[in-house]
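Thread: Modeling a multi-component assembly for a lab meeting

Hi all, long-time lurker, first post. My supervisor asked me to bring a structural picture of a complex we are working on to next week's group meeting, and I have zero experience with this. I have the sequence lines for every component (307 residues in total). Could someone generate the structure of the whole assembly? Inputs are pasted exactly as I received them:
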Amino acid sequence: MFDALFPHGIAPYLIGGLVMGAGVALLYVATGLVGGMSTVFSAAWSFVSGAAHFAQPRYVGSRAWRLVLAAGLVLGAALWTLASGQVVPVTTVPVSLLLIGGFVAGFGARMANGCTSGHGICGLASLQASSLAAVVVFIATAMATAHLVRSLA
Amino acid sequence: MNAAGLTPAGWVAVLVSGMLFGAGLTASTMVRPEAILAFLRWQDFGLLFVMGGAALVTGLAYAIAPRVMREPAFATRFGVHPSRFDAPTLVGAAIFGVGWGLAGVCPGPAIAGLGAGNWPLLASLAGMLAGAYVQGRWFGRDDPGAPAGAPAAR
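Re: Modeling a multi-component assembly
Sure thing. I ran the full set together rather than chain by chain. Output:
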């Protein structure tokens, strides 16, 4: 039963999750900032777009630290890959699906004001019912979609 | 405008926070769309421990820090996650899930995946930027009174 649910065990998942949590916890204790990752996309547009939506203080006032945080993600992933010697296999998901999936996920995350990190980690961590509802909804539609894609492939 | 009014040490803390997040995403194999899709297709439920472990540590910090610290170490105010129980949150979450299920990529891994050398995720990153633009430009809600999740909102 356990092997069927967790064919790779739970250690890498739990350890990775705890390290991610340490990052979000450090961000809060050090700076008081609360943030998932999806807002960085709207905040980045505030640099180049004159549209009123992107000129809001919540984007203009946070874009600098959000970009630094995103740079940290790339750097941390690179350092972990180098230090662990673990080679991440390049994905075989078709580029068209990656692009379309990214577009839909980006649109939805910004509409919901949060994604797997904003609602799934920060929202759940602050015990917000709206985030719990968002997590239940997006896991449900994602499971339905992933099953559908596999049955069509 | 100096976002968040951070001290230099605060900026370093933001970078290190991101590095921990990126390292954790890589260690947990979430930078592989295949690992996400294995969860969504009920082949490996490890993702629950990633999200649960991260939320647990984060929750402890959110609960304890404001009680034992007057203010953050390198800033002046503890922020809150600006979440609202309304239709856009639920509809947006449903749409987000469809995109997540199509490719197995969400924003964190799309960014961290580049550091891990998973180059095709650049396509997802481009898609997310485009999706965020279309959402904000033509469907965005402006709520200047909402908390920005950042001390900059003062």
